[in-house]
């Protein structure tokens, strides 16, 4: 099977003015670039201290957590009714660093409720609030469909029978923790689940895997085992689609794993060209399969 590049040249979805509420990582920049290439008028509203510096190339404003009134005023001035919320948030804010403005006061009960709930509660409340104000929330994959992995091999070598078994087990484990709104990833080596993602995130989980191998709690020779990443069954992909990127490949290598299995159509590949090149150069497979067949015995 030849590597599936997922249509890197595919055009972004057409539409009118677009507002991008951007947190960290490369994906907001890629979404803004795709929207601009499609002729959309883009406004980036960047979260202070988190957004990629490259977003300065686009019309941009910066806000702090809680400045909802400022966000609404910027959106109204821009004229866009479609909003894309995208990017990684390393930590939830505390009340000491929230710049609450008058616009945020009417949302305060919802904000407090969201901060004590799980990720799906937080994001669900945010989307509901925006929709009640007459905005339409769109996903990054709707604006830039080339970001999403299509089914098949993406990069690197084919999986062997042992990797297929580990991928199936890790995918099953990732779905279980996702259903609990805990995480989106799991690692299996030698048909044994050795790590589940929780609040620390995928990269920190992979650091934990590397530490387990270094201290002898988990043992294997060479590179073996699989990181599986998939969406939560109940996840709203418009605001929280999982992603992998070059840093994921690097972390997989440091952990001594053979490769990465992702869910097709529901996981993005950030910085796709760099990710594919790094995986291919280092012999790290990336494969997108929804339901992997069990390995054939013998």
Description of the structure:
This protein is α/β, with parallel strands linked by helices. The chain has two domains: 18-143, Rossmann fold (3-Layer(aba) Sandwich); 148-288, Cytidine Deaminase, domain 2 (3-Layer(aba) Sandwich). The protein has helices at 27-37, 68-78, 102-105, 108-115, 119-132, 140-143, 161-179, 202-214, 237-240, 246-255, 272-282, and strands at residues 18-22, 42-47, 60-63, 82-86, 136-137, 152-155, 185-189, 192-196, 226-229, 243-244, 259-262, 268-269, 285-288. The strands form three sheets. A six-stranded mixed beta sheet has the order 6-13-11-9-7-8. Strands 3-2-1-4-5 form a five-stranded parallel beta sheet, with helices on both faces. Strand 7 (185-189) and strand 8 form a beta hairpin. The longest helix has 19 residues, at 161-179. Residues 1-12 and 293-298 have low confidence and may be disordered.
List keywords for this structure.
single chain; alpha/beta; Rossmann fold; Cytidine Deaminase, domain 2; six-stranded mixed sheet; 13 strands; 37% helix; disordered N terminus; disordered C terminus
Summarize this, please?
With 298 residues, the protein is α/β, with parallel strands linked by helices.
SSE order and pairing:
Layout: E1 18-22, H1 27-37, E2 42-47, E3 60-63, H2 68-78, E4 82-86, H3 102-105, H4 108-115, H5 119-132, E5 136-137, H6 140-143, E6 152-155, H7 161-179, E7 185-189, E8 192-196, H8 202-214, E9 226-229, H9 237-240, E10 243-244, H10 246-255, E11 259-262, E12 268-269, H11 272-282, E13 285-288
Parallel strand pairs: 1-2, 1-4, 2-3, 4-5, 9-11, 10-12, 11-13
Antiparallel strand pairs: 6-13, 7-8, 7-9
Helix pairs in contact: 4-5, 8-10, 10-11
């Amino acid at each position: 099977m030849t590597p599936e590049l997922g249509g890197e040249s595919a055009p972004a979805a057409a539409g009118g003015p677009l507002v991008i509420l951007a947190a960290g990582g490369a994906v907001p920049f890629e979404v803004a670039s795709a929207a601009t290439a499609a002729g959309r008028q883009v406004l980036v509203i960047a979260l202070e201290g988190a957004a990629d510096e490259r977003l300065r190339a686009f019309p941009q404003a910066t806000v702090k957590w809680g400045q909802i009134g400022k966000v609404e005023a910027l959106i109204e001035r821009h004229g866009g009714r479609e909003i894309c919320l995208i990017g990684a948030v390393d930590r939830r804010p505390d009340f000491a660093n929230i710049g609450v403005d008058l616009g945020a006061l009417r949302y305060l009960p919802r904000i407090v409720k969201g901060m004590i709930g799980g990720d799906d509660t937080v994001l669900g409340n945010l989307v509901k609030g925006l929709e009640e104000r007459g905005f339409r929330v769109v996903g990054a994959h709707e604006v830039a469909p080339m970001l999403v992995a299509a089914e098949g091999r993406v990069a690197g070598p084919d999986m062997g029978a042992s990797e297929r078994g580990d991928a199936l087990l890790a995918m099953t484990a990732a779905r279980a923790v996702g259903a609990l709104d805990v995480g989106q990833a799991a690692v299996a080596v030698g048909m044994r689940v050795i790590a589940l993602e929780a609040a620390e995130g995928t990269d920190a989980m992979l650091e934990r895997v590397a530490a387990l191998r270094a201290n002898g709690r988990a043992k294997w020779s060479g590179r073996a085992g699989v990181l599986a990443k998939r969406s939560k069954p109940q996840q709203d992909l418009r605001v929280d689609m999982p992603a992998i990127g070059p840093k994921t490949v690097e972390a997989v290598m440091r952990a001594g794993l053979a490769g990465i299995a992702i869910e097709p159509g529901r996981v993005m590949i950030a910085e796709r060209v760099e990710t594919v090149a790094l995986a291919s150069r280092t012999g790290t497979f990336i494969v997108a399969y929804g339901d992997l067949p069990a390995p054939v015995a013998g």
